[in-house]
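ingest -> validate -> predict -> emit
validate: passed (alphabet ok, no gaps, 244 aa)
predict: started
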Amino acid sequence: MTGNASFSHKGKRVYVAGASGLAGSAIVRKLEKLDCEIVTVSSSELDLRRQEDTEKWFDKTRPEVVYLCAATACGIHDNYARPGSFIYDNLAIQNSIIHASYLYEVEKLCFLGSSCIYPRDTAQPMLEESLMTGTLDKHNVWYAVAKIAGLYMCDGYSKQYQKDFISVMPANLCGRGLWLPHLKKRPVASVSYRPQQWKCRRRSTRLPDRSKKVHVLPKQPWMRPFRQMKRFKAWKLPPEKSAK
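emit:
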């Protein structure tokens, strides 16, 4: 579903859910260049998993545009270690925001999904038609199922209530704002983190430099695309109306 291609942010109150995250912060930086009012709220101020609290906030704030970037997300390791949290948190966040957007007449909602909604062994490059045609990767199936539910929830509300609620599935993101804690978290993070970790360890132990290679990731039989944050920021927002 592509939504209204001529939609404009001009003069609109725009709520970015998850504004402190990797994708949300990039969208905020993009919106700052447009003629609109940006609205954000931290997780300490509003628990988006609570439907009643979310509806009260929407009633008070009345956003006209919503970017749903908020999610419980980290990496495959945490997905596999905390499956219950991942599926509950993400379903609850999505349900609260999408339904509140319907109740309080949000003009446009953009839901950010994930490339993990596609089958593990899907052909490359991935096509929309590949969705629901194969088995999801077992390590992050809980997160993927939640994101698939969000996609179909937007589609359902658009069809039943004639809402302009769209879904976009970004590639794995990297660049400004990427957290680099550990190999187990994200592949792009490990590409930067592991060589530096090895370099610091060698210096501290004064070991001779005999190694010609740094092992970054185990070999994986599947592929996923990546997108640098600058390109993501430029690509994400619905186009503005062209001046005539």
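Residues 119 and 136 are 5 Å apart (CA to CA).
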